[in-house]
Amino acid sequence: xxxxxxxxxxxxxxxxxxxxxxxxxxxxxxxxxxxxxxxxxxxxxxxxxxxxxxxxxxxxxxxxxxxxxxxxxxxxxxxxxxxxxxxxxxxxxxxxxxxxxxxxxxxxxxxxxxxxxxxxxxxxxxxxxxxxxxxxxxxxxxxxxxxxxxxxxxxxxxxxxxxxxxxxxxxxxxxxxxxxxxxxxxxxxxx
Length: 191
Description:
The protein is mostly helical. Helix content is 57%, strand content 0%. The longest helix has 22 residues, at 83-104. It starts with 15 loop residues before the first helix and ends with a helix.
């Protein structure tokens, strides 16, 4: 089953220049949309947010929905269960598993999570457009730095050099960011 991706934001023109750098020319619209979608949390210093209580609230809400949504199947009088409710009943146990796994982890982000996410978005978009990613590529590193700054990121290190992005790009190639690719591909297909 193919699911459409509801976009949370309109494309932000401040990412058009970054998209041009990544595309190495006129960028496709989906790229600006994708960069906009992933921008919250990249470059912002949100490391002091305590997500543990939020995860606990989501776990409780998920438990409640799993327990009570089946009522829709017993309404009687030939009233069918709405499709949205059936989909939710199917997917909620998987969401619960993900939340339970998240709750077991050390809360908070690793120190380089924002930079890794920035590098992942740029590297995956780069690969979709150009076919491969080379961490030593100066244009790719410059695109990471440009996206970082467009997202509000501060200078990295004593000098804000493109070379500062080689390691985050290399790290992202060893981590599972397939969900970023899946999202960008879905955005490509959306109207």
